[in-house]
Design a protein that fits this description.
about 140 residues; mainly beta; Type Iii Antifreeze Protein Isoform Hplc 12
Length: about 140
């Protein structure tokens, strides 16, 4: 028993590293800014580099003081369900622009389903960084 106590006394304690935590309660859908972050010491896993979190959007509500983890964040949504957005169909030199109703949310680069309002056809489209939609081939 003495050797166990001695072993525990001599073993190094786990190093505490600074991790990022929420400086305030962040509702779901909040885009993270530098003012939303603070560094805390702790042994809980989490992001340590602010550039890994700034500009991303929260998936769920993150309460003040909770360490930020990559699984709690996502790319910001540019497209919301049931909105009207320009839909571009392009084949070679042919370019057709129409309006489509989005059937789901989407971030830049996501493939979402949209309804072409002219033909009422449902197609897949890629969300562009400017918020427009590019019909898939």
């Amino acid at each position: 028993m003495r050797w166990l106590v001695l072993l525990l006394a001599l073993s190094p304690l786990p190093a505490q590293a600074a991790v990022l935590a929420a400086a305030r309660t962040l509702p779901a859908g909040t885009v993270i800014t530098a003012a939303d972050l603070r560094a805390i010491d702790g042994d809980r896993p989490g992001l340590s580099d602010p550039s890994e979190a700034i500009g991303l959007q929260t998936r769920i509500t993150i309460h003040e003081g909770r360490p930020l983890q990559a699984s709690l964040l996502q790319a910001p949504k540019l497209i919301s369900r049931n909105q009207m957005h320009p839909l571009v169909f392009q084949r070679g030199a042919l370019r057709i622009v129409t309006t489509a109703r989005t059937l789901s949310d989407g971030a830049a680069g996501d493939v979402i389903r949209v309804m072409n309002l002219e033909s009422r056809a449902t197609i897949s489209a890629v969300v562009q960084p400017d918020g427009s939609l590019l019909a898939m081939k």
